[in-house]
Design a protein that fits this description.
Elements: H1 6-15, H2 18-23, E1 29-31, E2 34-37, E3 49-52, E4 57-60, E5 66-67, H3 69-77, H4 81-91, H5 103-132, H6 137-145, H7 150-155, E6 159-161, H8 167-174, H9 179-185, E7 188-190, E8 197-199, E9 204-210, E10 216-223, E11 233-235, H10 251-261, E12 263-267, H11 270-278, E13 284-285, H12 294-301, E14 306-310, H13 315-330, E15 334-337, H14 346-353, H15 355-363, E16 366-367, H16 368-377, H17 385-399, H18 405-411
Helix pairs in contact: 3-4, 5-9, 11-14, 12-13, 14-15, 16-17
């Protein structure tokens, strides 16, 4: 497989009128100089999907979907960019002659393909360990206590990493992957003393991290120990496939629900997200164990208009919410905060009181500024002039992040 030349892409785009292409999928009705229809990407009763023949773009004012003729085919048929180009080229009878990659480009393409294959097979291996290995009984017991059934584990391909220094290394080498590929994947580390490879994930429940297309690109491993000196979660390091601040856990499954709801419920951890999703609350995502990055917020803005932060109600959870605020406000997202009952996270609330109790908390979520002011106002130091000044300065810092002057004036 080579690279499609830019001039060919331009020719294919020029030969495929966006009105004719989209009209081939479903009827379009003229509305002045444009065309409109019910949006195929979300449920609606009044047409908000518009196609502009002059600019050769589509735009849905309901869910925010927009783009060129290539973007439409990609979204409608759930295919990647090169495949969309080839499909439209075939429609216009334009031959595709792919250019050869340079040696450096080809090496990068080949390396990425091999890493994707390694992660795909590793996810299957971890999952098989969870289901079949005697050593994984403790993991199966833990997931059973958390209410995760076998079919849920299969749906999210949850796995188990044996408590061994070389189990994954041995499996991967037997499967035909090289030491260099293993090291590049982040699945293993290299001993400084001996130079030998060792398993990065040991004795942990494994959650595959996927990109938007559902391809496994990294892993997050949760410990089963109660030792406070052992990290609760260990994530893959950044690799050719994985950049931590550019990925949202669960997005490949929840993006349609996000568009329909126009709102994203942000959970702290994988188990919280899975519990919510499997209970029917599907417009959920989770950052990779950190506050939101600018890139993550921008990705989310493509799908929704607001986020509901659903972090733990303890001090750590509130700090996580505050750390996420700058990136979310910079992306012009409305932010609300859903408070969980004391001692509960979304997972435990759903298990003990049912999904309706969780939905009720989400429905009662308050605007971030109102929530934070009320929270701080209840603290003893707020009764002093110094405490009030400190809060005013803190709120002023948050307000300065708001770009919309109308929203800013309203918050002030």
């Amino acid at each position: 497989m080579g690279r499609i030349p830019e001039e060919t892409i331009e020719r294919v785009g020029a030969a495929n009128d966006i009105v004719e292409v989209i009209g081939g999928y479903f009827p379009l009705k003229r509305a002045g100089s444009a065309f409109r229809a019910l949006c195929p990407f979300h449920s609606e009763k009044t047409p908000s999907f518009h196609v502009n023949p002059q600019r050769q773009i589509f735009n849905c004012f309901g869910c925010g979907a927009k783009g060129s003729v290539f973007g439409f085919v990609m979204q409608y048929e759930s295919i990647d960019y090169p495949t969309a180009i080839k499909r439209l080229a075939e429609r216009a009878n334009i031959p595709i002659v792919e250019q050869e990659y340079t040696p450096a480009e080809q090496r990068k393409v080949d390396a990425r393909r091999r890493l994707l294959a390694l992660h795909h097979e590793a996810a299957k291996w971890f999952h098989a360990n969870l289901l079949e290995s005697d050593d994984a009984q403790v993991a199966r017991n833990y997931l059973k206590r958390r209410g995760l059934k076998r079919e849920v584990a299969a749906n999210w391909q949850i796995g188990f990493a044996p408590d061994s220094w070389e189990a994954c290394v041995g499996w991967a080498e037997a499967a035909g992957f090289s030491d260099n590929e293993l090291e590049a994947s982040g699945l293993v580390g290299v001993s400084e003393k001996s130079g030998r490879l060792y398993d990065r994930f040991r004795g942990r429940i494994m959650f595959p991290i996927c990109n938007d297309l559902g391809e496994v690109i990294a892993f997050s491993g949760r410990t089963l120990e109660s030792n406070p000196q052992v990290a609760k979660y260990v994530n893959s390091p950044e690799t050719l496939l994985f950049t931590k601040g550019k990925v949202l856990f669960g997005l490949h499954k929840s993006k349609r629900a996000l568009i329909n709801a126009k709102s994203a419920i942000v959970c702290e951890g994988q188990l919280d997200l899975i519990a919510a999703f499997e209970s029917g609350v599907e417009n959920v995502i989770a950052p990779q164990g950190t506050a939101f990055t600018e890139r993550q917020a921008q990705i989310l803005r493509r799908f929704v208009e607001e986020v509901v932060l659903c972090f733990d109600s303890d001090a750590a959870g509130m700090k996580a919410a505050e750390r996420s605020l700058p990136a979310l406000l910079e992306a012009s997202l409305f932010v609300r905060v859903a408070e969980m009952p004391a001692g509960h996270d979304p997972d435990s609330l759903i298990r003990e009181q049912g999904p309706e109790a969780f939905r009720e908390r989400i429905g009662e979520a308050r605007d971030f500024f109102d929530y934070q002011i009320e929270r701080y106002a209840g603290q003893p130091e707020f009764a002093t002039a110094r405490g009030q000044v400190e809060l005013a300065r803190r709120v002023a810092g948050w307000v300065s992040l708001l770009k919309d002057p109308v929203v800013r004036d309203m918050v002030v």
